[in-house]
Amino acid sequence: MRDFLRARRSIRRFKAEPVPDSVIQDLLATATFAPSAHNRQPWRFAVVATPTARQRLGAALTAKMRADMRAEGAPADEIETRVSRSLCRIDEAPALILLSRDVTDVRVDTPEEAVMGAQSVALASLQLLLAAHAAGLGANWICWPLYAQTETRLALDLPDTWEPQGMVVIGHPDEEPKEKTLKPLEALTVYR
Ligand SMILES: Cc1cc2nc3c(=O)[nH]c(=O)nc-3n(C[C@H](O)[C@H](O)[C@H](O)COP(=O)(O)O)c2cc1C
Questions:
Q1: Which fold has domain 13-173?
Q2: What is the pTM of this model?
Q3: Nearest C-alpha to atom 19 of ligand 1 is from which residue?
């Protein structure tokens, strides 16, 4: 288990081979075993299964990205390079799952509880990444929907109470991730 946990990596390139829905269902079921604040289980999943949904999501995210980058004064060629590179991630993902927080699934409506809800969804996301790893699949969390929460919700026709947090792409790995350097534990930890 220790080695398994240490071997998980973000996978961004996938073989064209599809991931059967039965596998996706199993991974999502495992994700729901994650801990959550007050056991509220505020995570919600949208499996972006149809080409139309994928296209709508891509269009919404890229429109918002273009608008944001234009507002920041980015040059047009830089905007288009970034847009097409980002869109590839959606187009090429064998499976694509949007993770949201249901804003009404909190014990009380306070900023702290909202953070705990988002933390809970993040734990479900990690559990999803680990479940994919356990199934011999690769996966990667993409934060893009966080920058376009309303647009994402509208594009996928999700309930008003769903607050998109991120999306996870999953597929059969087609890359060996580069070795990563970890910050030394001593620099991250204090004993008091
Ligand atoms: C909150 C969060 C947001 C992330 N957003 C992105 C993203 O938008 N695009 C991407 O390629 N990777 C994204 N990642 C993956 C990180 O880049 C990756 O986890 C990190 O570089 C460490 O690599 P590893 O996952 O292989 O250990 C995200 C990870 C987290 C936890």
A1: NADH Oxidase (3.40.109)
A2: 0.96
A3: 10
